[in-house]
Design brief:
With 147 residues, the protein is mainly α. It contains 8 helices and no strands. It is globular, with a radius of gyration of 15 Å. The two termini are 25 Å apart.
Length: 147
């Protein structure tokens, strides 16, 4: 199943933008973690449906963290993480912020939740692709070999 079909399938299962990004990232790594997927739901709808930063953007930042973040006391911080997140945010602002007047969920959805079905899948898909590009550009193996 390609990324677009998978994105749509996960949305139909009731997952939100942030969760869909994390689920697809974990699938690349051959991992599952329902607790992490539950936690990421807190980013949905602009951080708890407050209309704040788009869940695709915040979920994308978390996906980059899955690959480059510090997860245990004996791990070293990977300085590439903040660089990749900065690049993701700048790309997102240019790609979607200009189009919708900002990067908040409320700005992107504009006229309400009806546009969620038409706008969000494409935004999630493009953000996932950008995250993959950033990871590869910064030397990460998408399948997690060498972790």
């Amino acid at each position: 199943m390609d990324d677009t079909s998978r994105t749509i399938a996960l949305g139909r299962q009731g997952f939100f933008c942030s969760q869909i990004l994390m689920l697809q990232g974990m699938e690349l790594l051959g991992k599952t973690n329902p607790d992490l997927v539950r936690a990421i739901q807190g980013l949905a709808g602009g951080i708890g449906f407050t209309g704040g930063n788009c869940g695709a953007l915040s979920g994308g930042a978390c996906l980059l963290g899955l690959y480059a973040g510090k997860g245990a006391p004996d791990e070293q911080e990977d300085l590439r993480l903040m660089l990749m997140i900065g690049e993701l945010v700048e790309w997102f602002k240019a790609r979607f912020g200009e189009q919708y007047g900002g990067i908040d969920c409320i700005q992107i959805l504009g006229d309400g939740m009806g546009s969620q079905l038409t706008r969000c899948p494409g935004i999630v898909e493009e953000t996932l692709q950008k995250c993959k590009e950033l990871l590869v550009e910064h030397g990460f193996d998408l399948a997690g070999e060498g972790f």
